[in-house]
Amino acid sequence: MLNEMKSRFAGKDVAVIGVGMTKFGELWKKSLRDIFVEASLKAIENSGVDHIDSMYVGTMSGGLFVGQEHIGAVMADYLGVAPIPATRVESACASGGAAFRQAYFEVASGHSEIVLAGGVEKMTDGADVTEALAAAADQEYEVYNGITFPGLYAMIARAHMHQYKTTREQLAHVAVKNHKNGSMNPNAQFRSPVTLEQVMKATMVADPLRLLDCSPVSDGGAAVIVCSVDYAKKLKKPYVKVVASAQASDTIALHSRESLTALKCVSVAADKAYKQAGLKPSDINFAEVHDCFTIAEIVVTEDLGFFEKGLGGAAAENGSTAIGGKIPINTSGGLKSKGHPVGATGVAQIIELYEQLTGNSGERQVKNAKYGLAQNMGGSGASCIIHILEAV
Amino acid sequence: MLNEMKSRFAGKDVAVIGVGMTKFGELWKKSLRDIFVEASLKAIENSGVDHIDSMYVGTMSGGLFVGQEHIGAVMADYLGVAPIPATRVESACASGGAAFRQAYFEVASGHSEIVLAGGVEKMTDGADVTEALAAAADQEYEVYNGITFPGLYAMIARAHMHQYKTTREQLAHVAVKNHKNGSMNPNAQFRSPVTLEQVMKATMVADPLRLLDCSPVSDGGAAVIVCSVDYAKKLKKPYVKVVASAQASDTIALHSRESLTALKCVSVAADKAYKQAGLKPSDINFAEVHDCFTIAEIVVTEDLGFFEKGLGGAAAENGSTAIGGKIPINTSGGLKSKGHPVGATGVAQIIELYEQLTGNSGERQVKNAKYGLAQNMGGSGASCIIHILEAV
């Protein structure tokens, strides 16, 4: 089966050769284009390339957040790289992962040699953020009836607590761990650790989720440079190899699913990714996962196969997902602490993988990491994009 | 040079094996998802495939038009094809061309065998259409100061009239020809021919552009099935080959360009496309071009190399671009008469190429056509995507 799968991929091997991001947070003095250009210039400089052939920009809703679509062209213009091809891709909060995947395809197809994959979102410019984010849910059947994302994930949390005896404390442990990791990340929006008690007593948002269970509203940009492995070798600079790119979809509405406690888009994409890479979950040394809410990290770590179904909460509580644990999760601080400028998140996950796999993560370094996995998700799980990167 | 270029493309040869679209127009009884699903089911049925591996959706602004982002997942769900990967791509009015290009890359890379590329827009659902479309221009420097697209293209028209003595009548001839072609297209929004006098006396929109110089506000969807040429051969059904996919960008703002009368994104992308295909402009037998306004068709046919710079207006007047002329342009009716549901337009252009190249265009058939070119454009020319398809 493995040989069969591998034989299907006739394309070139693909590498990541440079990364750059802005600090995530409330970037009042920077516009959407400022943020993207800052991250992209850092990535270009970091990679050492003298040009790029093409670029992708992941943005969830330039239209609703700042009234700007045609994001690819805007960014190519302000980055000073026109007339190269520039395309925006959108998959709600998985837009960054989608941008990286399109860059992967373009390089794998042999059509371009060096492609920039970036993501950006400017969420603090005055738009109704909750309403804009709700455009990632089912507008006709969910949003119209009044629900938004904290409510959707609260239902997932309640169902998981009911079905698997997951506790309120276990949810809080995710936040505590991710804030601790984020405190060591200079680009994180929140660099302050939080205590279990602080999470447990935070303002209620949507029962059982409290303020510190929720990722914040953020501005930010992230970019990586993608090229063929052959080209990366010639550059003689650190690079990592992309050994899997997988994506899956599910019903847009949460109420249409067979289960509230399992994310099918995650397990389907993970299965494809492991097959493409010829790996199993236990081969993965660390992962960045889509912790838009604490419950999401618990469900996702189960559906990625890192823990048995129902034991994700216990894993967060017993330290299995901490740096130094069985499988460190969200060493960057995750969406929870690093911030969640929605279009940038998936690319920022790739950046954390690159930095860990090239040994540049400072005090949050995972030792002897060979394989890192990035799991980026849209909506309440209607889309999921997974990449596995390998140190070389 | 040609061999050098060709040798860069290591990927698989790519084919189009089936097409489907809705009627374009004011589709009051159909929602965004209804429209996309209708077009996609037709394309799947037309191609004869029993599944698709992945899909792309070109949509300019689901957010501003109908409050729905996460378009890829929504459409996969309602098409009944989840959990396959589904991604929305956006390049303003070139979103459809961008979706087709991403499908091309995914197949060329060997990552997927059968990919659906669709485009859709629902523009008549109550949004402020002029404001939503303006999100394709420079929000910070153009739109903020009050200009919208009719004004931008009116400036291009005035400059072209000044520089090349292009006449008001020549602009009108584009509309007359495209309405005549559209009258023969059952899927066109406007199937009524118009006279030169009607165009010349139509309500002024932005001097010199009158109502009949402008493409309409439309709902509509279009989809095509893309696969490798190897797979297409096995199916033993009609297919056409994709011999070039090229894209270019330019400044987002019209005022930043060196020239108002030439669209650099078009000439740069055309140059790349001709090189990839090993063709010159005179090898192309017919083309679908982005006539969002009559002046756009004139400028684009020059910048594609079909006519000398400045002679695009004369070509429209003397019949060179009519069916039976030197190079038939917009045999489908173009955006002007067929309609312009912005995200769907680029895919609908590919459909016209497929139907012409497989000899299924009925009374608007171009005789002995071997090569067709589709030129899809975003904004006032900040992005352009060109594909060349070959009959087999």
Descriptive notes:
The structure is a homodimer of 392-residue chains. By secondary structure, chain A is α/β, with parallel strands linked by helices. Chain A has 15 helices and eleven strands. Chain A folds into two domains: 2-128 and 218-235, Peroxisomal Thiolase, Chain A, domain 1, CATH 3.40.47.10; 146-214 and 243-391, Thiolase/Chalcone synthase (Peroxisomal Thiolase, Chain A, domain 1, 3-Layer(aba) Sandwich), CATH 3.40.47. Chain A has helices at 2-8, 32-47, 62-66, 71-79, 95-108, 129-134, 149-164, 168-182, 196-200, 229-235, 264-277, 294-303, 312-317, 334-338, 342-357; strands at 14-21, 54-58, 86-90, 114-122, 204-206, 209-210, 219-228, 240-249, 286-288, 371-378, 383-391. The first copy, chain A, has a nine-stranded mixed sheet, with helices on both faces.
Can you summarize this structure?
The structure is a homodimer of 392-residue chains. Chain A has 392 residues and is α/β, with parallel strands linked by helices.
Features:
homodimer, alpha/beta, Peroxisomal Thiolase, Chain A, domain 1, 11 strands, 39% helix, globular, disordered N terminus
Largest sheet of chain A: 9 strands, mixed
Average pLDDT confidence of chain A is 96
The oligomerization state is: homodimer
The percentage helix of chain A is 25-40%
Structural class, judged by helices and strands of chain A? alpha/beta
Task: Produce the secondary structure layout.
The structure is a homodimer of 392-residue chains.
Chain A lengths: L1 H7 L5 E8 L10 H16 L6 E5 L3 H5 L4 H9 L6 E5 L4 H14 L5 E9 L6 H6 L14 H16 L3 H15 L13 H5 L3 E3 L2 E2 L8 E10 H7 L4 E10 L14 H14 L8 E3 L5 H10 L8 H6 L16 H5 L3 H16 L13 E8 L4 E9 L1
Helix pairs in contact in A: 2-4, 5-15, 8-12
